């Protein structure tokens, strides 16, 4: 891995020409740095690289770690994340942390200083950076940013060096802002982990006398960790919108994050707003077993399978629906903030599932239920949409022949691949089995991540062309446009040419970097004029204050092309 001669050449080149000094220094360093043990390890395991090397080192030292199962579940199974930790031991704690994270995230990379980069066997896990002094090459910074852009997991020790003994215990020194810059640039969540470990009294005494001497003792300290176990406390992730706009200086933010992390040691309340990590994926074998019990509805041209699922207790399928639903909605600025998006309605609604048998992945799902069936068993309040809108008597004919749709999602890796269209084939197959259904209705959301101007434009446009007088549904928390807002928005549209005004809507949204939400476009183009209505618009506090439009579709006015596409 390394030898003492290299260390002397790099750190103390001035003594190489002084044999009287070089020899005793070399002997002392050879002892302090356990050169023989490292050489023997390298000879015994020359083939080990990356995680295999990490596991063997931990086994060699009989060094272990423990963490609560409920907290390990906080490590996100996918998606970009910046993981920060204190550094109490300065050696094996780093390898233990890599092992812990890699069990969930094989794509993990750790930001390494020059010393760690000298261990060639670790190179596949490392992204080099000068964490202590700055001055990292631009190309190296680009590698780090690219890793996060590709949804990788990144580990940093913000202190950049081992913790020291302070009046309040073993604590990191000054934290550096690299983790904050990388996370902010990628808009990545930050996951704090507290490591409960310590070095010997000799090390802390040497630190007080002469810090470089203590650094030289770190290898000795590593060997003193043999047969020891450290505990790791994993916090909830801190989303970007919790720290991205803090009215604090960088120095104040670093202090806040540091205090937040150390509070994990004593189960104290977090200082920064946190968010539950999305649940880990279900076992593929359990998903396949559950799918075998589902009603098959069809197969797409590229081999995707469409199923109808009726909820059963302790179902891997339902847990996976909830996990992927939360993932998809968070990706557009919505979501419940829970590890799974599952509510009471899921237990008695049906679920249309699109399954990729090649990748063994759930592509997406749609929740649906005949409203008459729900009302017969649970009353009108049993409908999901009744939690957002109040139905009056005029809604009764639609509910008697209606199918409520909602909570549809496509998991992000399948976006832009006709997946939503395939789910509509499934809806068509369901309708063919249920000819009594004439109407489709449900809540269609506009993300709260859209600025108010964008939401106003969409609500105004869809009310202009698809609104109804004397609506049979009233929003519980109406999204209202004032007369002044309506007058201002009216100037953008002629009001009697849908195609021209829709082009104008797309243009205005594009200027804000936005698109018309897919389902708004899809529903509004299903029918002949008069076949689609938006009955009301409501704000939904349970989903990050997104805006829900209540759509109503009369299938008897379906366009012939849509009829042929989905119902033939």
From TrEMBL:
Span of domain Phospholipid/glycerol acyltransferase: 81-198
Pathway involvement of the protein, from the record: Lipid metabolism
Keyword terms, alphabetized: Acyltransferase, Lipid biosynthesis, Lipid metabolism, Transferase
InterPro entries reported in the protein's UniProt record: ACT14924-like_Acyltransf_dom, Acyl_CoA_acyltransferase, Ornithine_N-alpha-AT, Plipid/glycerol_acylTrfase
Any GO BP: lipid metabolic process
Any GO molecular function: ornithine-acyl [acyl carrier protein] N-acyltransferase activity
EC assignment: 2.3.2.30
Gene3D superfamilies: 3.40.630.30
Pfam family, one: Acyltransf_2
Broad EC category: transferase
Keyword Acyltransferase: yes
SUPFAM superfamilies the UniProt entry points to: Acyl-CoA N-acyltransferases (Nat) (SSF55729), Glycerol-3-phosphate (1)-acyltransferase (SSF69593)
Catalytic activity: a (3R)-hydroxyacyl-[ACP] + L-ornithine = a lyso-ornithine lipid + holo-[ACP] + H(+)
Main function: Catalyzes the first step in the biosynthesis of ornithine lipids, which are phosphorus-free membrane lipids. Catalyzes the 3-hydroxyacyl-acyl carrier protein-dependent acylation of ornithine to form lyso-ornithine lipid (LOL).
Family: Belongs to the acetyltransferase family. OlsB subfamily.
Protein name: L-ornithine N(alpha)-acyltransferase
């Amino acid at each position: 891995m390394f030898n003492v001669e290299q260390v002397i050449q790099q750190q103390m080149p001035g003594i190489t020409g002084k044999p009287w000094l070089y020899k005793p220094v070399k002997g002392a360093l050879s002892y302090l740095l356990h050169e023989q043990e490292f050489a023997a390890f390298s000879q015994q395991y020359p083939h080990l690289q990356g995680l295999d090397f990490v596991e063997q080192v931990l086994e060699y030292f009989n060094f272990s770690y423990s963490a609560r199962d409920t907290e390990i579940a906080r490590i996100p199974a996918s998606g970009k994340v910046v993981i920060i930790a204190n550094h109490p031991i300065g050696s094996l704690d780093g390898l233990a942390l890599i092992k812990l994270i890699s069990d969930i995230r094989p794509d993990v990379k750790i930001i390494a200083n020059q010393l760690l980069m000298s261990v060639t066997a670790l190179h596949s896990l490392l992204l080099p950076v000068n964490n202590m002094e700055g001055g990292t090459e631009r190309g190296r910074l680009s590698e780090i940013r690219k890793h996060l852009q590709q949804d990788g997991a990144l580990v940093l020790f913000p202190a950049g060096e081992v913790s020291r003994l302070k009046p309040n215990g073993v604590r990191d020194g000054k934290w550096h802002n690299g983790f904050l810059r990388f996370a902010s640039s990628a808009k990545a969540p930050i996951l704090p982990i507290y490591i409960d470990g310590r070095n010997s009294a000799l090390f802390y005494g040497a630190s007080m006398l002469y810090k470089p001497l203590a650094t030289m003792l770190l290898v000795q300290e590593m060997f003193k960790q043999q047969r020891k176990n450290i505990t790791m406390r994993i916090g909830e992730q801190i989303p970007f919108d919790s720290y991205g706009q803090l009215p604090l200086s960088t120095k104040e933010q670093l202090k806040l994050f540091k205090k937040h992390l150390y509070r994990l040691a004593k189960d104290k309340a977090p200082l920064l707003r946190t968010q539950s990590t999305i649940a880990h994926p279900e076992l593929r074998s359990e998903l396949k077993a559950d799918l075998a019990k589902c009603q098959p509805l069809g197969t797409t041209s590229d081999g995707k399978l469409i199923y109808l699922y009726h909820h059963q207790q302790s179902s891997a399928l339902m847990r996976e629906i909830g996990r992927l639903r939360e993932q998809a909605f968070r990706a557009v600025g919505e979501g419940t903030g829970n590890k799974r998006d599952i509510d009471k309605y899921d237990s008695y609604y049906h679920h249309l599932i699109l399954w990729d048998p090649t990748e063994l992945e759930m592509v997406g799902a749609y929740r649906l239920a005949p409203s008459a069936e729900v009302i017969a068993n649970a009353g009108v309040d049993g409908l999901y949409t009744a939690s957002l809108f109040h139905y009056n008597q005029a809604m009764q004919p639609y509910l008697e022949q209606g199918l409520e749709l909602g909570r549809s999602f496509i998991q992000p890796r399948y976006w832009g691949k006709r997946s939503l269209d395939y789910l509509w084939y499934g809806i068509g197959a369901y309708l063919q089995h249920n000819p009594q259904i004439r109407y489709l209705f449900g809540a269609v959301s506009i993300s709260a991540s859209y600025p108010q101007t964008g939401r106003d434009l969409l609500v105004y446009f869809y009310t202009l062309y698809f609104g109804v007088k004397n609506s049979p549904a009233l929003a519980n928390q109406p999204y209202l446009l004032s007369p002044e807002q309506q007058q201002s928005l009216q100037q953008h549209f002629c009001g009697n040419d849908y195609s021209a005004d829709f082009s104008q809507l797309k243009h205005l949204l594009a200027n804000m970097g936005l698109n018309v939400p897919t389902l708004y476009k899809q529903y509004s183009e299903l029918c002949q004029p008069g076949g689609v209505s938006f009955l009301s618009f409501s704000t939904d506090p349970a989903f990050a204050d997104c805006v829900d439009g209540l759509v109503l579709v009369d299938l008897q006015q379906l366009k012939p092309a849509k009829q042929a596409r989905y119902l033939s």
